[in-house]
Design brief:
Radius of gyration: 23 Å
CATH topology of the largest domain: Rossmann fold
Structural class: alpha/beta
Number of helices: 16
CATH architecture of the largest domain: 3-Layer(aba) Sandwich
Shape: elongated
Mean pLDDT: 93
Order of helices and strands: EHEHHHEHEHHEHEEHEHEHEHEHEHHH
Distance between the termini: 12 Å
Number of domains: 2
Helix content: 40-55%
Largest sheet: 6 strands, parallel
Length: 379
Amino acid sequence: MGFEVRVISIDGADRQFEGLSAEEKEEQLTTFYIKSGGISKALIAHLRMQFMRPFSYLRGLVYSIRLARWNVRAAICNLLYFAEAVVFVEWLQRENLVHVHMHFTSTVGLIARRMTPMWTSVTIHGSGEFNDPTAFYLREKIETFDRLCTISRYGISQLMRLSEHSQWSKFCVCRLGVDFSVLAPRPFRHNPAPFEIISVGRLAPEKGQHILIAALDLLLRQDRSVRLRLVGDGEDRRSLEQNVVKRRLDQHVIFEGRRNFDDVLGFYQQADALVLPSFAEGLPVVLLEAMAMEIPCVATWIAGIPELIRHEVDGLLVVPSNEEELVKAIARLMDDPELRLRIGKSGRRRVIEHYNLTKNTELLAEMFHDSFRLPNTRT
C-alpha cells in the first residue's frame, strides 16, 4: 500500500520464543525491542545524544519532569519513559523514519516528540486510557499528536469529552480487523454435554471473571452440564482459583493460562459460547475472533461492545455485574440451539462486513496518506 513498516516495542514478548506461534516468531525476529539491549546500550544511547544533540536531550529531560507536575512518583516514571524515549529516538534517526504510529506506548512517544521532529499518530484502545486521563497525559497527547484514532465511536466520544472542540478534527475511527481465512466457522454442536463456555482475556478485576464463576455456580445448581475454560493470566488468577475452590467448582473450571494464538484457536474449535462479563473494555479482539468462527457471544453492554454486537441479532448483551442476568443469557443459549446457530451466523456476517482485516488496513493506509501527505514514506 506504499508504506514500509518497521516495528519497535518497549518490552519483549510475554512468552518464551518456543511458546510463540509461527507468525509471532517471525514478527519477533523483525522487531526492535528497546529493553533488549539492557542498561549498557541505553547508557551509550544517552551519552551519544548528550554529545551530538545536547539541546534535544535537555528538552526531553525537562519536559518529562514538567509533565509530572511536582508529583515525585510520576516524575520517576517519566524519567524511565525518557530513558526509553532516548533509545527510541536514536533508533528512529538511525533508520531514517519520519512517521510514528503508536499503540499503548504513547507517553514515550510524547516525550520523544519533544526531542525530534516526526509525524505522530496513535490508536487509543480504551478503557485504561480513560480511567485516569490526567495521569495518562491524554490532554497533552491530544494537543501534541497529529492524528488520534480510536477503535470505536465510544472511544471518540471520550476523546471529545476530554478535549477542546478545536482538536476534534484530529480524531477518526480505525476499526480493528481479523483474518477470515484463519478464523473459519467451527463445528456446531446441537446438544453438547458438557456445554463448553470459553472466556479469553487477562485475569484482572475489570474483566469481571468472578461474576462469571458465580454464574457458573448458579447454572450447576440448576443441574446443567456446563464447563468453563478461562484462557489468560493476570493479577486476579489467585483470587479466582480460590473462589473456584471455595465453591467446589474444581471439576468445572479449567485455568488454561496464557496461550499463543494457535492454542486459543484450538479452544475456539471446542467452544459452544464465549462469555465476557467485563466491567470495562475498549472493543475486545476476542469477540471479533469468536464471532468470525460463529461462536455465539454473551458480553456486557458497555463501551464499544454494542457497536459490534446488536443485542439478540449478533449476540446477547447483559448489564455488567448482574450474575442473574448473565445466567439467564447463558441458559438461553444452552436451551435453544437454533438461537445459538442464528446469532453465530449473524455474528460472522457482522464481523466480515465491519471488521475485515484487509479492508480496515486499507482505511488505515488511507488515513496515513490523507493526513500526512506522505506517500511511499518509511514508517
